[in-house]
Input
Amino acid sequence: MNSLDNNPATSSSQPPLGNEFGTTRSETNGIKRRSFLKGFGATSALLLPMTAMLANRAKGATSNASVPISKGDAAILTFLGAAEIIESDLWIQYWELGGTQDNEFAKMTGGNAFYTDALSILDSDMAQYVHDNTDDEITHAAFIRNYLASRGASTADLDLLNGHTFRKLPGSTAQGSSGKLRLTNLTALNVDTSFWTRYRSDSQNPDLSGFKFGQAQNRPRGIKNRTAIPRNDADTAGSSIGNPTTHLKAIAFTAGFHFATIEQGGTSLYPSLAQRVQDKEVLQVVLSIGPTEAMHFQTWQDKAGNATPLTDTDPVTGSVVTFVDLTTNQPQSLQSNLIMPEPCPFINTSLPICSIVRPTNTQGAAMAAANFLIAMNLFAGQSGQFFQLLLQLATDADAASG
Output
């Protein structure tokens, strides 16, 4: 979830983010985080809506619990675990409406046939991919939480984040939604599509330059204030199977680019924080989970490139989005079939260019990731305490010594 442009949060409801990496230790309303946790009763008795599911996923996980991990390694894993909880929440919303329906990790809702059909424009297997990405993030969250516990580290922060306290955001009411309250808001997203040009550049690396990478869609600003899921049945009205409305296609295409935006962030975040890990087994955990995020990103950027040209004005917000055809007559910076990372400068410009994940600069990586998610408007409607907790976890992870 690492912002490649280190986007600052802009909402007036958000706590201060400090310098360019947001390293200020925010204490919203003067409440320190530990007393804040105590005040919410973050104990083993905390009710967790996903506890049973996560516990089942982690059965059989064992480790050398007699050797506690360092405070820094625990902070890194806790932040990664928080990121996975956030991802699980947003992916479950996508799965309920547009994923293959079964009871593998949650009670199936029946899905939304019109939204699923619109997603299939990007690829006929989109529903299965959405299902599997959701499954992966749930297992990541479960494993990291239980691994921390097995190594004697506190899981209070993760249990608080995964509990009822911050699940207060209303989601979709369209057919197929469970109607549950959420951690994340998918209905007013700012989707940064600059990952597209960043991975196709053979001359620029965000770790080595201040180059501004262009947007792939809705140029030059990127996708702004758009819903990536049908908010209600009005968003699917007028669609039929095989013939979605322009508005519903715009929702599906926004989702397609959001999928890739989220997963390219994870692709960078894991190697960025791995450089600060001390314990060999913790390093194994981070290096083993990280590449799955890259697999997700590779899939989603390939599918997003199949979006068809359209312009849509949202009937609720009035925001306008334009998608262009990236499959024909495009320069290298936009060409849709260039899904392998173009070689680019790495470490030092005097060295040969190299095909890499980008960025992987470890300084401020966790805070950049937190800022990236906030700037995406993913937490629109959340409380100051939520932002305080997220930023503190990022600060702690960035403070870990490598």
Notes: Residues 2-63 have pLDDT under 50 and may be disordered. The chain is about 40% helix and 5% strand. The first helix runs from residue 33 to 39.
